[in-house]
Write a structure and sequence with these properties.
The complex is a heterotrimer of chains A (364), B (296) and C (268). Chain B is mainly α. In chain B, 76% of the residues lie in helices and 2% in strands. Chain B has a two-stranded antiparallel sheet. In chain B, strand 1 and strand 2 form a beta hairpin. The chains are: A alpha+beta (364), B mainly alpha (296), C mainly alpha (268). Chains in contact: A-B, A-C, B-C.
Chain lengths: 364, 296, 268
């Protein structure tokens, strides 16, 4: 997955709605053939950014390039992009077939060719045989598939997906996530997905741009994003993270030396300690699954701290514990897989908690 | 302009597109509504000459309209009729709107509304005339009551007077009162009513403390949409009102079509509109006070 | 039973609403000149009398011309206004829409005399044309009310989807917007036709010598011997409006069903 050509490029894209500054200097490139996600809370500008690619939003300054061409010169109906709308926008007065074939009208194909292409598109999304159905007689999942087929039939260079799964229930959503990944591999074109669901973004994307307040704050692959979030805001938005205050003692090219309240002194590798800031007061973060409770009879770990269980949340496959570590001001959350023979602890139990400096991320 | 241009421009010149689109309708309303209304306002300050209007500014028309006993009586009567019709219409309509909104199965609500609106759309003049037949001296009501032996001679208080006008107008404006109240009642989240009862209020108190305040915007709309046009009705007074039932619209008609005195007619029309507007504003003010509640 | 008394009341209220309409055919088919009970016998002679009345024929012709023209013009104007007000934000929108919708609450006599004044001042002779001008003014707000709900229930992304798939703004309007609001347009045409056909005050002031149907009806009330025929005419008109309204309601509901919107009921 290296050195793929650029499909979409944002060059210092700015967007104002009156006084409201919706996009504040977006610079990013989306590579050809990748599954790219714009992730952020509502109102962060992710949908606006997607719509600048489609041509539904003008930009106030900067440039959007699609396949090397300035998009400002191409009207929305001539761009090599197609969109799956959040509401699906299935034309309610047309049949499934007429919806899917809508974009082919201008191509003036003969009937047989038209039928063949619509059939192929329907087969691709698993709706063979649904062609004659009325649009309003479809379920949510079926509408979504029709919207996909309709957008893909024109063989766009880029498929834009605006929160396409948000209207589906949990089971259906998880199923469609997998299907979308497969579909993207099958057609091989660039997918740009807008979502506010971090799990969805992690599951589906090759790369994710996390947006807050009109800016991209981090652009990375899912693993990097999860393991090494650049800011506390990103860390908090993606998954759960514990934060503890820490004092920065030394900062060299081969890592940082910090004194973490309650945990003591430890060293953090350079790639877990992004540069920035200049004070001594910093924060370290760590994911719940990087902490482990040691049960009786288990060997001592290199680093362990005793604590008291304050809260227990049982999830079936996992149990979450809030543990007040001795000498640490606030409780930390940790998660344990429920394997056979492992007990679920009660509130008030004393426990030994093992942790590793390798899992710490430094925020300044 | 390229074909996609319209869409690409929407952000920048949405205002221009919107204005361009509304301009035919707006122009029509400005030329044939705003300008004529401004004109009668101006004419009301001019002097009536024989067969023409003399362009000298005067308050004489207003002085005449407000001091002449004849006009004053009719104006006061119009106001009282309009107020009582409004009160009767809205009070009669509220339980119907409440019934349709709260007690009718959702799938049958449209049918009820359709049934309520149908009489409204059917020949207004003939409906008014039939009320005359129903309420008249030898009318349906009197002959039935006589026939059943309930009364020994025809009732006179129901025909050719203000009462008959009130009944007829309450009938004519019924859907105007029911629909806004219905819409407001429909918007009320049903769980609010359950919350009211859950918090210990009786059904009646829940109605008074929750339903009624929330339905108030609909009631206000109903009151205004009934009260304002009634001032302008002149067929009903003419047909069922008798000589004592004449209203301000009849005066305006008289000045315009019979006496050809446009300035005075305009002055009466403007005065009537001013009174209606004042009463409406007063009503809106009182309503706002009511909704703010006695506590604050 | 909860709601029981309300139901009784609502039914009594319906009787009140329908009282005149129930009486209408009774007198129309009654073999007597006097409009009173008891009824004397069945007859269709009043319907026959309508056929030979040349004044009535003129009035019907005038009213039909006015109503058809009014329906088309006011629906066209309403399409512009409803689309503009539901889709775009622009300065002065509230004011302009307020002015356009004003005839809904303005007493008709005010509309009538103000139009009369300006037409006479402009030296325009009164005719069915001037009635049309007035009727378009008062019908447009009703049409806008109907069409606004049709345009409002249009998901904006439907338009965007059509552009996205290569259509132009014009072809999008033709292929997507128009078919979806068509039920609204039809019910707007029918409602404005019905209003115009039944409107009296403006027609009375602005028709000059060309009487419309309601103007003719009022003039006939002066002659007691003409009234039974008017009852017959009224019966026909009632049936006609119920038919038109039924069709309008059918299209309104179909429009809602198509766009998947919730039925909030009513024309207003």
């Amino acid at each position: 997955m290296t050195a793929k050509p650029t499909m979409i490029e944002f060059r210092d894209v700015q967007k104002y709605y009156g006084d409201y500054h919706a996009l504040r200097g977006i610079n990013a490139s989306i590579r050809a053939g990748e599954f790219f996600s714009l992730l952020g809370p509502s109102g962060c500008g992710k949908t606006t950014l997607l719509r600048t690619i489609a041509g539904f939003e003008d930009i106030s300054a900067g440039a959007v390039l699609i396949d090397g061409k300035d998009a400002a010169l191409i009207p929305a109906n001539k761009r090599p992009t197609n969109m799956v709308f959040q509401s699906y926008a299935i034309f309610p007065h047309l049949t499934v077939e007429e919806n899917v074939g809508f974009g082919l009208r201008r191509a003036r194909l003969d009937k047989a060719e038209m039928g063949r292409r619509v059939g192929d598109a329907l087969a691709m999304v698993g709706l063979t045989g649904f062609g004659k159905r009325a649009a309003h007689a479809l379920s949510g999942g079926q509408r979504q598939r029709v919207a996909l087929a309709r957008a893909l039939i024109l063989k766009p260079k880029v498929l834009l997906l605006d929160e396409p799964l948000s209207a589906l229930d949990k089971k259906m959503r998880e199923q469609m996530q997998v299907e979308l990944i497969k579909l993207q591999r099958q057609v091989g074109i660039t997918f740009v997905l807008v979502t506010h669901d971090q799990e969805e973004a992690l599951v589906m994307s090759d790369r994710i741009a996390v947006m807050f307040e009109g800016r991209i704050v981090q652009l990375d692959d899912p693993v990097t994003l999860y393991r090494r979030p650049k800011t506390r805001q990103v860390a908090d938005f993606i998954g759960t993270m514990n934060f503890l205050p820490a004092t920065l003692l030394s900062d060299t090219t081969d890592g940082c030396e910090v004194e973490v309240a309650g945990l003591g002194r430890c060293r953090i590798a350079p790639d877990q300690a992004p540069p920035g800031g200049n004070g001594q007061d910093t924060t370290v973060g760590f994911r719940p699954e990087t902490l482990t409770i040691l049960f009786d009879g288990q060997a001592a770990a290199a680093r362990e701290t005793p604590g008291t269980v304050e809260e227990v949340v049982y999830y079936g496959d996992m149990t979450y514990y809030d543990v007040k570590l001795d000498g640490v001001a606030s409780a930390v959350r940790l998660s344990m897989r429920n394997v056979p023979g492992r007990p679920v602890l009660d509130i008030g139990t004393r426990a030994r908690v093992a942790w590793s400096p390798d899992a710490l991320v430094l925020f300044r | 302009m390229t074909s996609g241009g319209v869409l690409r421009r929407t952000g920048r010149s949405e205002a221009a597109t919107g204005l361009a689109m509304i301009s035919p309708t707006a122009t029509y309303a400005i030329l044939l509504l705003a300008a004529p209304l401004a004109l009668i306002f101006i004419v009301s300050f001019l002097t009536d000459g024989y067969l023409e209007i003399i362009r000298t500014f005067t308050f004489a028309n207003y002085i005449e309209a407000w001091t002449n006993e004849l006009y004053r009586v009719v104006m006061v009567r119009s106001l009282l009729v309009a107020l009582s019709v409004t009160a009767v219409t809205v009070l009669l309509a509220f339980p119907v709107a409440y019934f349709v909104s709260f007690h009718v199965d959702p799938s049958r609500k449209s049918l009820w509304l359709f049934l309520i609106t149908i009489p409204f759309w059917t020949s207004y003049l003939i409906r008014v005339f039939l009320w005359k037949v129903i309420l008249g001296y030898n009318g349906v009501v009197n002959s039935s009551l006589l026939g059943l032996g309930i009364i020994s001679e025809p009732l006179q208080w129901i025909n050719y007077n203000v009462g008959a006008v009130v009944v007829t107008l309450a009938h004519a404006y019924a859907p105007f009162a029911i629909l806004p109240i219905f819409v407001a009642l429909e918007k009320i989240d049903r769980s609010l009513l359950e919350a009211g009862q859950d918090l210990g209020e009786s059904r009646v108190m829940t109605f008074l403390r929750v339903t009624l305040p929330l339905a108030m915007p609909g009631v206000v709309a109903a009151v205004l949409i009934v009260f304002i046009p009634i001032i302008g009705d002149f067929v009903t007074p003419q047909l069922v009102g008798g000589p004592e039932g004449r209203m301000v619209a009849n005066l305006i008609q008289l000045q315009y079509l019979k006496l050809d005195n446009y300035p005075l007619g305009s002055a009466i029309a403007v005065s009537a509109m001013a009174i209606v507007t004042l009463v409406s504003l007063l009503f809106l003010y009182l309503n706002r006070r009511y909704l703010r509640g006695p506590g604050s | 039973m909860r709601g029981g008394w309300f139901k009784v009341y609502a039914l009594v209220y319906l009787v009140f609403l329908y009282a005149p309409i129930i009486l209408l055919p009774m007198f129309a088919f009654n073999d007597a000149t006097v409009i009173a009970f008891p009824l004397s016998g069945f007859s269709t002679k009043w319907f026959a009398a309508l056929v030979d009345d040349p004044l009535l024929r003129d009035a019907v012709r005038n009213s039909l011309i006015i109503a058809v023209t009014t329906a088309i013009l006011s629906t066209t104007l309403a399409v512009f206004a409803a689309r503009a007000s539901t889709r775009y934000r622009f300065p002065g929108k509230a004011g302009l829409m307020g002015l356009i919708m004003l005839p809904l609450v303005l007493p008709e006599i005010i509309v009538a005399v103000s139009l009369l004044s300006i037409l006479l001042m402009a030296g325009i002779e009164l005719s069915i044309l001037t009635v049309i001008l007035g009727h378009v003014l008062i019908c447009t707000p009703f049409c806008i009310a109907i069409l606004s709900s049709a345009f409002q229930s249009l998901d904006r992304s439907l338009e965007e989807a059509a552009y996205d798939l290569g259509e132009t703004p014009f072809s999008t309007f033709r292929l997507i917007i128009l078919p979806l609001v068509m039920p609204g347009i039809i019910s707007s045409l029918l409602i404005s036709f019905t209003i115009s056909l039944d409107e009296f005050i403006i027609a009375f002031f602005l028709a000059g010598t060309q009487a419309t149907l309601p103007v003719y009806i009022l003039s006939q009330f002066r002659f007691p011997q003409a009234v039974p025929a008017i009852m017959a005419l009224g019966t026909i008109l009632v049936c006609l409006s119920i038919l038109l309204l039924g069709i309008a309601e059918f299209f309104r509901r179909r429009g809602l069903a198509r766009s998947g919107a919730k039925d909030t009921g009513g024309f207003l």
